[in-house]
Amino acid sequence: MTDLRSWLEKVESFGELRHVLGAHWDTELGAIAELSYRTPEPKALLFDDIDGYATGRVLTGSTGSARRLGLTLGLGDDLDDAAVVAALRGKPSVWAATARDHPTETVTSSPLLDNVVEGRDVDLLSLPVPRWHAEDGGRFIGTGCLVITTDPETKDINGGCYRMEVVEDGRSATIAAVPGKHGAQHVRRWFDRGEKAPVVVSFGHHPVLLVTGGTEVPTGISELEYAGAILGERLPVLIGEHTGLPIPAGSEVAIEGWLSPDHLADEGPFGEWTGYYSGRRRPAPALEIARMYHRDDPVLLGAPPGKPPHDYSYMRTVMKSAMIEDALVAAGVPGVRGAWAHEAGGGRLFIAVSVETRYAGHSTQVGHLTAQLPAAAYMNRFVVVVDDDIDVANLDEVVWAMSTRCDPVRDIDVVGGTWGSKLDPMLVEGAPPYNSRAVVDATRPYDRRATFPKVSTGDPAYLRSVMAKWADVFS
């Protein structure tokens, strides 16, 4: 099950797909999606009969529930929030270790080849590309996309999810890859050699590629192989005739071409995952499209960000939490009991870690290590370390621990000059994209653990027995 349509059939079978007919591509589609994310049980939305378009569809909310994320990650489609988190424990390290056992499988036929458009005739606006937010600078086709690049020396393949605005009347699209990300590094290396950078982009695919493209897969591991490890099968790919790069054969829409340092177009602003519009309109590399491929009546995978919760904030929170916990355990740190990259911080800005403190300085070690892990370092702002009696996923409990077990003058370290982003609303225009981060020790002081006041709540086992006895009171 490596294509989007099979995934859609499965999601519809268990009642988590809603069809929306007749929405307009200009902000209305985005507003409907935004309102859906705010509901208690947001569904995936498939927009059809989009105003002004006889063909082409848009999907949003693909990974926004435990059942849909569990299906996407091959963990099962009957999981609740707690079960999907439990099922993920240890999985990222296994997927990373086995990714190379799932090399892509080259194929020569695919429904993607039903419509092939050469560069001079390409019109991305023949598809219902949304303008997602009212203050967006244009129509962004790249929200749930996978941008595939290669290192010119090692030939490593990378797949990243970067924002892409349609420009030049549909003949091109900008690629705004954040500096430091693997895709941006690949492009820079091609430019440094005085050459154009080959690029493939898929705009509609199995959501596992949204997951792998939107999280920090370890360096040197292809997101396509990592996706194969997740699904337990090799991902079929076509080979682009112009670029030689792999194109997911299950894709709905794909393009291939080149980026050049002197081919720029203005892009932005865009409503980003921080919950703010990022920057002013500015130049970004624009793709010279050699060819476009698409299925009949294709589905664009939309993943519009915004103020959390947004399209992929649930997925990023669950995935990054598992990756951070795995990385801490792999680093050999004892006593780690859980990690949670909170959705309110976009799955990046606010991370809580629980630990069974075993020695003086243990909690400080865990906090500083977490703040700089590859899985957590990008644009992190707060790391809070709590005792193992605190549920790291419960923000109320984390704030309670900060409020009662943390002495700010002693227990908060601030580290400057760390990996930030131009997307940071706190960054001053034109300044280098550094940020600072606070490491908060909200554990009981190690030297007072025996005498620290006891928590005034019932014993968990006793509370469970009372709940069972008086179940009618709580029903």
Structural write-up:
- This protein is α+β, with helices and mostly antiparallel strands.
- Among the domains are: 89-298, Roll (Pnp Oxidase, Chain A), CATH 2.30.110.10; 331-448, UbiD C-terminal domain-like, CATH 3.40.1670.10.
- Helices cover 27% and strands 23% of the residues.
- It contains 14 helices and 23 strands.
- A six-stranded antiparallel sheet has the order 5-17-14-11-7-8. Strands 19-20-21-23-22 form a five-stranded mixed sheet.
- α5 (91-98) crosses α8 and α7 (208-214) crosses α8.
- The model has no long low-confidence stretch (mean pLDDT 95).
- It comes from Actinophytocola algeriensis.
- Residues 314-442 form the 3-octaprenyl-4-hydroxybenzoate carboxy-lyase-like C-terminal domain.
- Its EC number is 4.1.1.98.
Tell me which CATH architecture of the domain at 89-298 applies here.
Roll
Q: Strands of the biggest beta sheet: in what spatial order?
A: 5-17-14-11-7-8
User: Helical region count?
Assistant: 14
Query: Which CATH class of the domain at 89-298 applies here?
Result: Mainly Beta
- Helix and strand content put the structural class at alpha+beta
Count of β-strands: 23
Give a concise summary.
One of its GO terms (molecular function) is 4-hydroxy-3-polyprenylbenzoate decarboxylase activity. The protein has 475 residues and is of the alpha+beta class.
Q: What keywords describe this structure?
A:
single chain, six-stranded antiparallel sheet, alpha+beta, 23 strands, 14 helices, 4-hydroxy-3-polyprenylbenzoate decarboxylase, 27% helix, Pnp Oxidase, Chain A, UbiD C-terminal domain-like, 475 residues, UbiD, five-stranded mixed sheet
